[in-house]
Amino acid sequence: MIGQLRSVVIDCPDPRALATFYSELLGIPFAEAASKDDDWVVLGGSPGHQPRLAFQRALGLRTPSWPDPERPQQFHLDVTVDDIESAEKAALALGARRLPGEGEGFRVYADPVGHPFCLCWD
């Protein structure tokens, strides 16, 4: 092993807003105060204590457009849920939107900025 994963960093136009969405979706608290201008916001424990999600301001972000290959998803998160129907309702209430695509045990959504994520169940 060369190193350990510190954080998954998501580019977005408004780090505070997207961090709030994921904090409520995943139940991960804010880890540290954002920079004065909210260019960097972190959810989760201190470095080395997983999971950690960080959000950084990216002006002019070209958001993904699922499933358009001209604007690929770049990355996505899989989120395990117990009850897909109640999880979907809650995610949509937070600002997520349903995207085309689902399969056995997963449905595809976009966060408020457009990044795809999946709600998964067994």
Question: What descriptors fit this protein?
Answer:
122 residues; alpha/beta; Signal recognition particle alu RNA binding heterodimer, srp9/1; 2,3-Dihydroxybiphenyl 1,2-Dioxygenase, domain 1; four-stranded mixed β-sheet; 8 strands
Please give the domain count: 2
The ordered string of helix (H) and strand (E) elements is: EHEEEEHEEE
Report how far the terminal alpha carbons are from each other: 31 Å
Instruction: Work out the helix count.
Output: 2
Number of strands: 8
Structural class: alpha/beta
CATH fold field value of the largest domain: Signal recognition particle alu RNA binding heterodimer, srp9/1
Radius of gyration: 15 Å
Give the CATH architecture of the largest domain: 2-Layer Sandwich
Largest sheet: 4 strands, mixed
Strand order across the biggest sheet?
A: 1-4-3-2
Q: pLDDT under 50 segments (min length 5)?
A: none
- Class of the largest domain in CATH? Alpha Beta
Fraction of helical residues: 10-25%
User: Beta-strand percentage?
Assistant: 25-35%
Q: For the residues shown, what is the average pLDDT?
A: 87
Tell me which oligomeric state these chains represent.
single chain
Shape: globular
List the helices and strands and how they pair.
Layout: E1 8-12, H1 15-26, E2 30-32, E3 40-44, E4 52-57, E5 77-80, H2 84-94, E6 97-103, E7 106-110, E8 116-120
Parallel strand pairs: 1-4, 5-8
Antiparallel strand pairs: 2-3, 3-4, 6-7, 7-8
